[in-house]
Write a structure and sequence with these properties.
Elements (H helix, E strand, L loop, with lengths): L11 E5 L4 H13 L4 E6 L7 H13 L4 E5 L5 H10 L4 E4 L8 H4 L1 H22 L3 E7 L23 H20 L3 E6 L2 E2 L8 H10 L4 E3 L6 E2 L2 E2 H12 L6 E2 L5 E2 L2 E6 L5 E2 H15 L12 E3 L15 H7 L7 H16 L4
Parallel strand pairs: 1-2, 1-4, 2-3, 4-5, 5-6, 6-13, 7-10, 8-15
Antiparallel strand pairs: 9-14, 11-12
Helix pairs in contact: 1-2, 1-8, 3-5, 5-6, 9-11
């Protein structure tokens, strides 16, 4: 196991995408775990999905009454990023701001170029000029594309993305590697696998299915239900991020006297792919249990098996060996526990109890 070399107590941390699903949970966890920590959050709060959920997440953070500053801005705005870094001595950056979603990237590519490429470049430039101790950034399991080798290892070649979203995330890893090499910036990329949980993203399957079932609409199960996903509960993702933040890849020089890139990439996934049909079965059981749907709900009449969609892959499966070896951590929240927590949140947030 690696020893921690980044102290977070008393430091200033920048979390981009702070109104997002992972970002907001990370901010609350940092305030819970560390003393005298200052957190600056930045988010553009786009209307890609219901902004009320984003504002509710921010309200929860504000209720903690800690040293918290929120900046409503896009990381694609270079001047805004420059102001944030120039006004505070930022020690660690966690870049979670990104335009997410595979299917949306097919119809709205510009959003991905702006946030995921230009925005990430602005963050890298700021880290270069203001000498942060550690840059941690979100990559994605989507970089593996239609990789035939499972489980997915960070040693696998990922040169064949099947969506623009995946291509931007792979580009982030390449850009971070170049900046680590050229400017000796310690950076760690995290490939997240299908994150879910309370107050999550409404465009994700579990959330979208729930919305449709509540309205009596039909849910479409892609690839005729023959997809498998490595569903990872948000608390497990945050646990991994917090541990990784505290160890920056070590700086060192090679035989040529030039820096060896202080650069690392990890998978964070549950390492237990679930069949989509089994996932839907558990979801509907937990929705009934929580009172989101009535006990006599006719699920069979609200399900439609359809072909695979462009940009999708049949399976995601994380090899987390490196994460376990370096940080003694392996995500382990069961799908049933995670979906139960989501269903109970859904009842409270939308007041849908039947």
């Amino acid at each position: 196991m690696l020893s921690y070399n980044v102290e977070l107590d008393g430091k200033t941390v920048l979390v981009t995408g702070a109104a997002g699903f992972i970002g907001s949970n990370l901010v609350m966890r940092l305030f819970h775990d560390f003393r005298n920590i200052r957190v600056i959050g930045v988010d553009s709060i786009t209307d890609y999905y219901d902004v009320n959920i984003k504002y509710e997440r921010l309200k929860e953070i504000e209720l903690l009454n800690r040293d918290w500053t929120f900046v409503h801005a896009s990381i694609a705005d270079k001047d805004a990023v420059e102001r944030i870094f120039s006004e505070d001595r930022i020690s660690v950056v966690v870049n979670l701001a990104a335009q997410a979603g595979v299917r949306y990237s097919i119809t709205n590519p510009d959003a991905y170029v702006q946030s995921n490429l230009i925005g990430f470049y602005n963050i890298l430039e700021a880290c270069r000029h203001y000498e942060v101790e550690h840059l941690v950034y979100a990559s994605s399991s989507s970089v593996y594309g239609s990789n035939k080798t499972v489980p997915y290892s960070t040693d696998d070649k990922v040169d064949n993305p099947v969506s623009l979203y995946a291509a931007t995330k792979k580009s982030n890893e390449l850009m971070a590697h170049a900046y680590s090499k050229l400017y000796n910036i310690p950076s760690t990329g995290l490939r997240f696998f299908t994150v879910y949980g309370p107050a999550g993203r409404p465009d994700m399957a579990y959330f979208g299915f729930t919305d449709k079932l509540v309205k009596g609409e039909t849910i479409k199960i892609f690839n005729y239900g023959n997809c498998k996903r490595d569903f990872t509960y948000v608390d497990d993702i945050v646990e991994g991020v917090v541990r990784v933040m505290q160890h920056a890849p070590e700086k060192d020089n090679g035989e040529d006297g030039l820096p060896i890139p202080p650069y690392k990439v990890y998978n964070i996934g549950n390492s237990h792919p679930e069949n989509l049909l089994e996932f839907v079965t558990i979801l509907q059981e937990e929705l009934v249990r929580a009172g989101v749907l009535p006990k006599d709900y006719d699920f069979d009449s609200h399900k439609e098996l359809v072909p695979m969609q462009p940009g999708d892959v049949p399976v995601t499966y994380a090899d987390t060996t490196s994460l376990e070896q370096d940080f003694a951590f392996k995500p382990g929240t069961s799908l049933r526990d995670g979906l139960r927590n989501f269903a109970e949140w859904y009842v409270k947030f939308y007041n849908t109890e039947k």
